[in-house]
Amino acid sequence: MLHYDAGIPFGIHLLILAAFMLVSMGIASTVAGLIRESKNATMLNSLIITPTCMIGGCFWPLSIMPDYMQKLANFVPQKWAIQAVETISAGGTLSDITLPLLILFGMAAILLTVGSAILRPSQPGVNA
Fold it and tell me: How far lies 98's CA from each of 8, 54, 68, 106, in Å?
């Protein structure tokens, strides 16, 4: 529609974004299980989204951050999604982004499992 070509094949870009979306859903379900009141959901942006974007390299390159922050970036999904997109846009292939994709899918599996366990009600519901 806008005729912008990032130089990334659609299928691979979709795969990277799908992996990141699954991790995001896992984080959301985990946090939703921990935050029971809707008025506390507003702190989600300031406590989770913004700091992980800063640590993950969304706002500035990881190379300008101190070493301990660069190591901490390995634990946020933004770093791995950005790394995969940068590798593909630089001419890499699907085999070049295997590690970032495996890490993203691993994070997604863990967070979705934890989130579904937390969201499960502790009391059985009323039988209809």
Answer: 16, 24, 25, 12
29-47: per-residue pLDDT in tens?
888 777 766 677 677 767 8
The string of pLDDT tens digits covering residues 55-104 is 999 999 999 999 999 999 999 999 999 999 999 999 889 999 999 999 99
Exposure class string for 46-70: b at 16+ Cβ within 10 A, else e: eeeeeebebbbbeeeeeeebeeeee
Residue 74: how many CB atoms within 10 A of its CB? 12
CA–CA distance, 92 with 84 (Å, rounded to integer): 9
* Dist CA 112 CA 22 (whole Å): 8
The pTM of this model reads 0.83
